[in-house]
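The following record pairs a protein chain with its ligand, citrulline.
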Amino acid sequence: MYFTHAITRLPGKNFAQGITTSALGAHDYDLMLSQHRSYIDALKSAGLQVAILEALPDYPDAYFVEDVAVVTPEIAVITRPGALARRGEEQAILTALTSQLPMTHIQAPGTLDGGDVLITGKRVFIGLSGRTNAEGAAQLGVNLEPYGYKWTGVPVGGGLHLKSGVNALSEDTLLITREFSKFDVFRSYHKIIVPPGEEYAANTLRVNDSLITPQGYPGVRGAIARLGLEIIELDVSEACKMDGGLTCMSLRF
Ligand code: CIR
């Protein structure tokens, strides 16, 4: 969880044409840009050097860069996004990562979205979701095993991604929805269970000594404040309308 770099991508004017299941009202591009700028500022204030890539007009969801690569200190695995409309975004991340790390790719028929990949230390939980299939999960696992990682598939059920419902606040503490907290695979972790109605805030991002959390979830804020880390609250209403959140908008390494 100690990172030095992040990659982000600017949302495009057509960001509202991305995939969404939410009906949370009208979209506002200027507001999206200013919220995205605040997000970048938060990453910088947590100590990261932040690359900002240009918007991709053909891919309105491309600013959710987390989904197109899984980056560990040892290797970058370029994904094969599960949504057809997003297939191709992964090519556009290559140049940003090429100089940094050895690289490998998820191959067809595997599909994998980075939003389904939760890494704590050398443990990797891979959500089996509408976006990530068993083949994609296994390919990621096999690519990481040589570096000492152990992986487990986790059925995601109705949500978009695994990290829509569970994220690591430290190597042994998870912020987790009640539903995921019942899963045996998470039994050895301390768990902070998000209060009912605050499930969106399970997508809280630990960066170095900061926790970046969505604004407007007082129960989660109160619970995570006890960890003694700096809390940065951000309004991410526009990304939320597109089914995205804080982890989704960057790659950290
Ligand atoms: C999608 O449906 O793919 C985007 N609208 C949202 C992706 C959010 N990404 C993430 O949770 N990692």
